[in-house]
Amino acid sequence: MSTGLDRLSETLLMGPGPSCVPPAVYQALARPTIGHLDPRFLDIMAEVQHLLRQIMGTGNRLTLPISGTGSAGMETCFVNLVEPGDPVLILVNGVFGQRMTDVATRLRADVDTLEFPWGKPVVPDTVHQQLARKSYRLVAVVHAETSTGVCSPVAEIGGLVRQTEALYLVDTVTSLGGMPVAMDDWGCDVMYSGTQKCLSCPPGLSPVSFSERAVAKLTSRGTKVPNWYLDLTMIIKYWEGATRVYHHTAPINMIYGIWQTLQCIVAEGLENVFSRHRSAHERLVTGLADLGLDMLVDRDFRLPMLNAVNIPAGVDEAQVRKRLLANHDIEIGAGLGPLAGKVWRIGLMGHTARSHNVARLLAALRTELALPASK
Amino acid sequence: MSTGLDRLSETLLMGPGPSCVPPAVYQALARPTIGHLDPRFLDIMAEVQHLLRQIMGTGNRLTLPISGTGSAGMETCFVNLVEPGDPVLILVNGVFGQRMTDVATRLRADVDTLEFPWGKPVVPDTVHQQLARKSYRLVAVVHAETSTGVCSPVAEIGGLVRQTEALYLVDTVTSLGGMPVAMDDWGCDVMYSGTQKCLSCPPGLSPVSFSERAVAKLTSRGTKVPNWYLDLTMIIKYWEGATRVYHHTAPINMIYGIWQTLQCIVAEGLENVFSRHRSAHERLVTGLADLGLDMLVDRDFRLPMLNAVNIPAGVDEAQVRKRLLANHDIEIGAGLGPLAGKVWRIGLMGHTARSHNVARLLAALRTELALPASK
To answer: Any idea what the Cα angle at residue B178 is, between residues B173 and B180, rounded to 5°?
Structure first.
């Protein structure tokens, strides 16, 4: 029987995620499935929680991977903490800020947004003025906007939100594991991320963490969480305590994967991992400049792991992406929303973020843009 | 670095799920991750849809795996089809009927339930009388109640629901891939299942299917689906059509897993698979009787893949389960709700459903119950 598994050749994943997966993580995914209440699995869950706290920079007890991809993590944070009519402020400078707005609006929150240009960071002064105007229950921002490659000053914004009664929510889907994330130091109450970016695990889980203040809001809700699958009041009874109450069957093998990848990151050392991301990014920016390509985002606000590159005039951008994949086994990403057709998004995430991968991409780009060979 | 992967020895999974996973599926999980918009991945998605339609017994175009475990599938069906105030009838004879009631109530539906004793099937006559009393938008039932091991007459109930305007929803989490499921023949409009039961893939995906009538209800909603992550109006734009609109990053490697396991099932032949489940079940019931153990459910309503066994007086049921796992690498399940402490749940699901596995369990049970060796 031909299963078609031969179609799945190793591809250099340099898009906005998924990223390349290290061999040890593939091996972990293929380890024997055991039961979700097996004592050995409960030990693994505890280790995953411990490792996540280290990487997220938090001591929060309620720290665990949600059984869905990054957007399920976003949904989890909002649906557990927002009740109808709650005033919520969302800081928008790309697709994922927009998505948070959509999620919160569907939950019938009283949603205000502050909009910033795509390709620019959120401006703390503007946030400060808005916080002086109105009281919010929740303020939400994206640390690393995957749609533009911009880093927003989440620590500074956290200082402002901390002066109010609002809970502070930060999306670290793209930043976690690739640059410093310091949940507690930022004054952040709620965080979600994903596995398929700098954590270098296939997509399927979303780490979330809630501070004690966030847990207090959760447990004092006036209404049941309107989403059974993502109701943390029930999920924590499975993840915590002596009596493990079955909620839904945990995605066992995916949890092996995140467990392994978190171990790899901690073993390499967070500072080494971040430095590897920065070096690969610098090498990429220099190499692109040699090819005559420039970056969308100003140097000060650039993410190391997501690089938005302006597409030169006259280039059929979709054809270049198609040829990179077909001829070189390299995937890069297209622009989203107003940046569609204007930028490529080049990911240097997790296991992908290595100089030799950057060199391979630059050589392939040179060929496909039909530029003369490098001196 | 010790990763602790050695803790994960092969275990004979005879609980209520997860079930044993065939080697080919483990191998599929470990194949190289590719992008969620890679043309090779789009082909795999189409093949998964095609295979799911065969196994679910439907021609429904909208047939795909949701990126979450079985309960996410339940949530998907209700959140997409139920609007506040919609009259919904739920037929309850165990935990999963109760769970559907909770899910629908959180969505502010006008929920009525018909309750049947745990360990007994839903009675069509009772349903018929209720349908004559009130008009419903949706009627929901569990085909194979995992909490009790009971099979309900879903085809007969479908005939009754079809005489009304209601959509008909059937949970096949435990039955799919282990006994005949005939969505279209049953007059079923909405179905969800899970991967970790008779499909023998690790937990993490939930196949769902919607009939044209269900899609018509979905697309004529007066309100947005109040759950961004599970909003099928957006998810289908990624799964269908020439332009694939990114919604969330699909759980790539889990989809390799379901793709492989569906291929295995179709290659073995559905009739052969069902017959293997029935034989293992018959062997188990006979062997349990030899040990002096009897079944909770009357013969006519027993599921082949989930066997609720009455616990003999004087036996410490938790100790027996613990010893089966520690001394024999065999997992069986505890009772839930009113059946906690009263039954064991022995799963014969998918790859687990083989005579030699039944023999291994019976021998281990004989030892742990300290019965004399078999003649």
So the answer is: 95
**Reported ipTM:** 0.96
Query: Best residue in B248, B324, B328 to probe A by mutation, most A CBs within 10 Å?
Result: B248
Regarding whether B87 and B232 lie in a shared domain, the answer is yes
Give me A247's structure tokens.
């909620």
Closest residue in A to B335 (Cα) is A246
Domain boundary among A220, A239, A266: A266
Distance from CA of A358 to the nearest CA of B (A): 18
Q: Helices B212-219 and B232-239 sit at what angle, rounded to 10 degrees?
A: 120
* Six token digits for residue A83: 């009740």
Question: pLDDT tens digits, residue range A275-305?
Answer: 999 999 999 999 999 999 999 999 999 999 9
Phi-psi region of A4 (alpha: psi -120 to 50; beta: other; left: phi over 0): left
Judge whether residue B230 has pLDDT over 90: yes
In a domain, A375, yes or no: no
pLDDT grade for B374, boundaries at 50, 70 and 90:
low
User: Is position B3 within any domain?
Assistant: no
Tell me, yes or no, if the pTM score tops 0.95: yes
Q: Verify that A298 and A234 share a domain, yes or no.
A: no
Structural domain range at position B302? 10-17+270-368
- Using CA atoms, how far apart are residues B68 and A361, in angstroms rounded to an integer? 34
Boundary of a domain, candidates B247, B266, B285? B266
Examine the domain organization and report whether A299 and A348 are in the same domain: yes
> Using CB atoms, which residue from B11, B225, B251 is nearest to A204?
B251
* Helix or strand (DSSP H, E) at B263: helix B252-268
| Helix ranges (DSSP H) in A121-269 | 124-133, 154-162, 212-219, 232-239, 252-268
Lookup result for tokens 């990126």 = B67
User: Which residues of chain B are within 8 Å of residue A146 when distances are taken between CB atoms?
Assistant: none
Q: Where are the beta strands (DSSP E) in A137-231?
A: 138-142, 144-145, 150-151, 167-171, 190-192, 206-210
**Residue A173 pLDDT more than 70?**
yes
